[in-house]
Design a protein that fits this description.
alpha/beta; Rossmann fold; Dihydrodipicolinate Reductase, domain 2; nine-stranded mixed sheet; six-stranded parallel sheet; Gfo/Idh/MocA-like_OxRdtase_N; Gfo/Idh/MocA_Oxidoreductase; NAD(P)-bd_dom_sf; Gfo/Idh/MocA family protein
Length: 350
C-alpha cells in the first residue's frame, strides 16, 4: 500500500460530506471516486471536494478503481450488503452507523471482515469527542469508583428527519430515533463504562407525532409518497452482568425545552455528567461535607477527523480500531432486544 490510502465514497449525501471534510485534512487519505444512484448529487459532491471520478453503481466503482478502502454513507438497509461486497473485493470498510438493520446482518459483516482479513469499523464518531474521552479517562483512573448506573439520551423537540424518507420507513431504516440517534449515545456510554456484558433489556416505543405529520420542522420536508411506520420515542432499561444498569431515551419529537444529548454516570466514589450540546463534562465528588465538583468547558475536537485517523492507522497496521465490530454487534443486540421488548411487553434476556 502506498503512503496515500485511496478511498472510494459510497453515497454522496450530507454525512458523506462530513467524512470528505475530514479526508481533506488528513494527508494520508485521498478520495479518488464517489458512487451514488443519484448521479447528479454525486457530481455536485465530487465537484465540491475535487473527486476525479463519479459512478452510479458502487460495485462498478470498486471493480474499476484501485481502492484501498471505502466509506459507506448509505441508508441503513444498505450497510450490510455494501460492506460485505466491499470486503469480499479486498477493501477495508468504514461504515456509517448503525452497523446494520439487525444482529444477523451485523454478524455476517464481521464474518466477512474476518474472512477477508480487512479492517471493518463502524463510524461511532462520538467516542472521539473531548467530553467522551475525558469521561473515559475518569472511569479508567477510578475517579468514579464502581459505576453502578448510567443515564443517557438524545432527545429532540422537533426533529423528525424527512417525513416519508427512508429514515421513517422501518424496512429501510430498521426503526426510528432509537436506531438513528439513540445508537450514538448508547455506544458512547457503553464505551465509557468499558462495555459491560448486557444480560437483559426492557423497552417501550411510542409513535405519537409521526403518524400525524407533526413536529417535522427543521429536519427535512414531508414526502406524501412515503410513510411513517417507526417510533418517534423509545425508552429502555438495560441490565449488565456486573450488576450495573443503564437507562436510555431517544426521541425525534417531544414537548421538552430543547434538544439534549447527554450522558450521566453514577459511581460509588463519584459521578460524571456530559452535555454534548454544550460541550461540557462535569466530575462530581465530595468528602461527605464539601462538594468538590469540577466542570470542564472543552474546546471542539474534530471527532470525524479523529475517527478517520484511527481508521487509517488501523488500515496501515499502526493501531487497533477504537471502534471494534464486536462492540457494534453488542449495540445491535441491545437495539434488537429493545424493539422486541416493545413489541411483546416482556423483559428480553440476552
Amino acid at each position: 500500500m502506498s503512503d496515500k490510502v485511496r478511498i472510494g465514497m459510497i453515497g454522496a449525501g450530507g454525512i458523506s460530506q462530513a467524512h470528505l471534510q475530514a479526508i481533506q485534512k488528513e494527508e494520508r487519505a485521498e478520495a479518488v471516486a464517489i458512487a451514488d444512484v443519484f448521479v447528479d448529487g454525486a457530481k455536485q459532491t465530487a465537484e465540491k471536494f475535487n473527486i476525479p471520478r463519479v459512478y452510479e453503481n458502487y460495485q462498478e466503482m470498486i471493480e474499476k478503481e484501485e481502492l484501498d478502502a471505502v466509506i459507506a454513507c448509505v441508508p441503513n438497509f444498505l450497510h450490510a450488503p455494501v460492506t460485505t461486497y466491499s470486503l469480499s473485493k479486498g477493501k477495508h470498510v468504514l461504515s456509517e452507523k448503525p452497523m446494520a438493520l439487525n444482529v444477523e446482518e451485523a454478524l455476517h459483516m464481521k464474518e466477512s471482515a474476518d474472512r477477508a482479513g480487512k479492517v471493518l469499523m463502524v463510524a461511532q464518531n462520538n467516542r472521539f469527542r473531548s467530553e467522551t474521552q475525558l469521561a473515559k479517562k475518569w472511569v479508567m483512573e477510578q475517579e468514579l469508583g464502581r459505576v453502578y448506573h448510567a443515564k443517557t439520551g438524545w432527545v429532540r423537540r422537533n426533529g423528525i428527519p424527512g417525513w416519508g424518507s427512508w429514515f421513517t420507513q422501518k424496512d429501510k431504516a430498521g426503526g426510528g430515533p432509537l436506531i438513528d440517534v439513540g445508537v450514538h449515545v448508547l455506544d458512547l456510554t457503553l464505551y465509557i463504562m468499558g462495555y459491560p456484558k448486557p444480560v437483559s433489556v426492557w423497552g417501550k416505543t411510542y409513535d405519537v407525532f409521526g403518524p400525524q405529520k407533526q413536529k417535522t420542522m427543521g429536519y427535512g420536508r414531508v414526502d406524501d409518497q412515503g410513510k411513517f411506520d417507526v417510533e418517534d420515542l423509545a425508552i429502555a432499561v438495560i441490565h449488565f452482568e456486573n450488576g450495573a444498569t443503564l437507562t436510555l431515551d431517544a426521541s425525534w419529537a417531544s414537548f421538552i425545552k430543547e434538544e439534549r444529548v447527554y450522558c450521566e454516570l453514577l459511581g460509588d466514589q463519584g459521578g460524571a455528567s456530559l452535555d454534548l450540546g454544550k460541550r461540557t463534562a462535569t466530575l462530581f465528588k465530595d468528602d461527605g461535607r464539601v462538594y468538590q465538583d469540577e466542570t470542564h468547558d472543552l474546546n471542539e475536537q474534530d471527532d470525524r477527523l479523529a475517527l478517520l485517523t484511527n481508521f487509517l492507522d488501523s488500515v496501515q497496521g499502526k493501531a487497533e480500531p477504537i471502534c471494534k465490530p464486536e462492540e457494534s454487534i453488542t449495540v445491535q443486540r441491545i437495539l434488537d432486544a429493545i424493539y422486541r421488548s416493545a413489541e411483546t411487553g416482556e423483559l428480553i434476556k440476552l
